[in-house]
Specification:
Order of helices and strands: EHEEEEHEEEEHEEEEHEEEEHH
Strand order of the largest sheet: 14-15-16-13-9-12-11-10-17
CATH class of the largest domain: Alpha Beta
GO molecular function, one term: ferrous iron binding
Strand content: 25-35%
Number of strands: 17
Number of helices: 6
CATH architecture of the largest domain: Roll
InterPro entries: Catechol_2-3_dOase, Glyas_Bleomycin-R_OHBP_Dase, Glyas_Fos-R_dOase_dom, GlyoxalaseI/FosfomycinResist, VOC_core, Xdiol_ring_cleave_dOase_1/2, XylE-like_N
Bound molecules: (2E,4E)-2-hydroxy-6-oxohepta-2,4-dienoic acid, fe (iii) ion
Family: Belongs to the extradiol ring-cleavage dioxygenase family.
Organism: Alteromonas lipolytica
CATH superfamily of the largest domain: 2,3-Dihydroxybiphenyl 1,2-Dioxygenase, domain 1
Protein name: Metapyrocatechase
Helix content: 10-25%
Amino acid sequence: MAMTGVLRPGHVAIRVLDLDEAVKFYSDVMGLVETGRDDMGRVYFKCWDEQDHNSYIIREADQAGVDFVGFKVLDNETLNKLEKDLNEFGIETRRIEAGEMLETGERVRFTLPSGHEFELYADKTKVGNGMGLTNPAPWYTQSEHGIAPVRLDHMLLYGPNIAEVKKIFCDVLGFFLVERVLGEDNETEAALWLSCSHKVHDIAFVEYPEPGKLHHTSFLMESWERVLRAGDIMSMNEVAVDIGPTRHGITRGCTIYAWDPSGNRFETFMGGYHPYPDYETITWTWDNFAQGLDYPQRKLHESFLTVVS
Ligand code: M3P
Ligand code: FE
């Protein structure tokens, strides 16, 4: 098997201000599938085409934002090896016991220099995508309910010390740098798009003074038409839209950004390209960042660059 090590973003745990309102939003507007609730008050969701039990978890809190991000690794041997590698690199890790999150195995948790809680895990119960593994249909009712993204795709996190973060992802966890934005000095890296797979990014970071911030969680749509349909559903439900529909120069993704009722930004996107680990990094200079952000409009949208949760 060519793909080993860290496989993909497996889950993100998000804080919401009103749980009932959020459950309604993520079930009916976003069209995620609720898969469980735990005794800590967390509600678990997955996207319709995901096989594992959960990918998007919410809990009620006084402040919106992200609690932690989890990436799935190939197997337990990989988990043990990456934990050892992280420790040797000087990163302290701790184990969270299997079952602390519903249907999820043991997790290796650590804090990134950007202030984000990040974890690796190898096991999560496979519940399937509802279409079975024998002669499956291409879609079913859940894929037409609400925005109905295919899968959790990536997240963009804001925080300090992204140069250190890059070392952890590239030198320890086996990611590669797909694209980057340089700061005004045309030297320092202001933003990073990192992949552990064939995807144009699995996680991204922007340098920002405040630690642990969430810019957006991104959901994959099957087509540009489905992104536009997502925009229609946002408008029908009076969802607060930030930017789009448009296309980024960075990653070439086609996108809409909007906020959940608590002010957590999410993205519905499709497209981009499929880099291999031997591809060379694409660089956006500061003077062209407006194209990087919004290629057709060439606009540095103020809200997009400054509002985080
Ligand atoms: C994405 C993406 C910025 C661009 C963000 C890009 C911060 O979210 O999915 O490619 O300018
Ligand atoms: Fe994104």
